[in-house]
């Protein structure tokens, strides 16, 4: 039995998570026990609470977390991001932020230069360090003398472990290539640490091809030649930006899945679609649940249910390949089709 | 008489700069006095010098600097970037890094969704602060306990002046729209400073439309809807990444121009193509000089020669609209055509 905490969240979150659960129950009947947690903008507005310690402790007792989407324009910037999403990433030491991007057959991407099936990359984004450490401050606020700082903190420990994960993943893929992305020519201290850790881990993996790119060049090549990437490993902020570009060139964040993973399983990993709560279409049954379902596939994979994960991924491939262009989708109908396919 | 310092630099730098000078001399005969400075990878290898103080002092005596490209894979990362390019940006207080992107008629971009003529945006990138301040360090280097930091420094002074420049530019454009890009939900201290300075300047420009986007969303929308942007103002590192995306979606960095501007003219501004020294094609006469020529047009504009700048820009538009697809270009022939057109 796998114990999953479900945070459906705000906006379209509950709608897409319902489909993900439907698909998981279909592919692995009776294996997952889900407990719902009410967190997000709605709870914040109702109670002022973002993530009570008692809830954090309860979440820690689960095997994994499935999250829909949290947030709403009415919540001040940073409150749910720092107080909930980043809090979970840091508290549960989710140092691998895994973001696969594929241009699926049937999906029209924005690039004239790329054909469906040609892009299949995964960004392994560091999840617990860098500019996300929250090490910043300000002085003389609201005066002409104001200064504000943000500090990127990088440790050999934190950098090396995520690079190891990237190489391990590359070793299980066909092309076995890892691209390190940083900005070593400007961020010389952190860049040097990343580059040296990368070289050290690469030396242990002679079967894996490696390359290095500056983040600006990588942003450009993701647009002009996304086919060239296999596994990309990069820091927290660069990964935030690059994964949205990768999502954009493969059909949009509506299809992008994500996992915040603690690979050792000491803490629960968390899986969530990259898209937000999309309040404009919430409650209408129009949201595409594919990103949530693919996130559930990453969850199954992480819990060791590789066959089930593959069946869910195949269900998505079939769904996308068979969508009639221009026909509006219904969230629950997509979920039904995926569940049926995945159940076999 | 305008006194221009020319740093042709490495690789294709001298080839493309020669065309830019040809065009400038054609459009404004006898107006520009150029002095050449030998800086870049070649000088570094020959003498170990990157930017001697005496040269910096001489450069300061010019009205503007035209730079081709510096760098070579044989120089360790950071040496020329920190020692030359960033040194000049900081020493000459070039706080506006101006990067226009247009999808010119005749140019095929990578996006199926965008037609030539539809994209016309300019990124106003902060040039003297943020993560480029060089405020970082490391401890316990080369041990498992190593930590490395990079600090983003932001001042109200530095942020407000570049935002003012962006609004001034927007006021002179047709759409009069400014998009602030930051990551206020994670970089809460610097983000708040940027957002408050932006709101204050916006209040003085009721005729300018404003919007805010997180950097990850902006990176995505630059790929899916670049048409939506007019003026984008952002910090140093975000601007580095976003301008390469903007270049990519408008036909590549081979066409992208850039100005590092000290708007008050207290110090010389510097103009350079965004592309690098491209050692692989250097000396073959194959480099496209358009980015260098467009950079020279930005230079002319900055020095008050708006008519000449417009004629050069029109020459480029004509050149690009009339290029026969698939025919390899010759650097000097392109320069000749542009000079002839610009001369009228
Ligand atoms: C919401 C925000 C904190 C988050 C991030 O910056 O990591 C999001 O953009 C993401 O990519 O998951
Ligand atoms: C070469 C490097 C220092 C520079 C930067 O990061 O600003 C370059 O990428 C640019 O965009 O001009």
TrEMBL record, chains A, B:
Pfam families: Iso_dh
Cofactor(s) required for function per UniProt: Mg(2+); Mn(2+)
The keyword Cell inner membrane appears for this protein: no
NCBIfam families noted in UniProt: PRK03437.1
Domain of life: Bacteria
Keywords, in A-Z order: Manganese, Metal-binding, NAD, Oxidoreductase
Protein name in UniProt: 3-isopropylmalate dehydrogenase
Parts forming coiled coils: none
Ranges that cross the membrane: none
GO molecular function, one term: NAD binding
Span of domain Isopropylmalate dehydrogenase-like: 3-338
Matching PANTHER family: D-MALATE DEHYDROGENASE [DECARBOXYLATING]
InterPro entries, per database record: ICDH/IPMDH, IsoCit/isopropylmalate_DH_CS, IsoPropMal-DH-like_dom
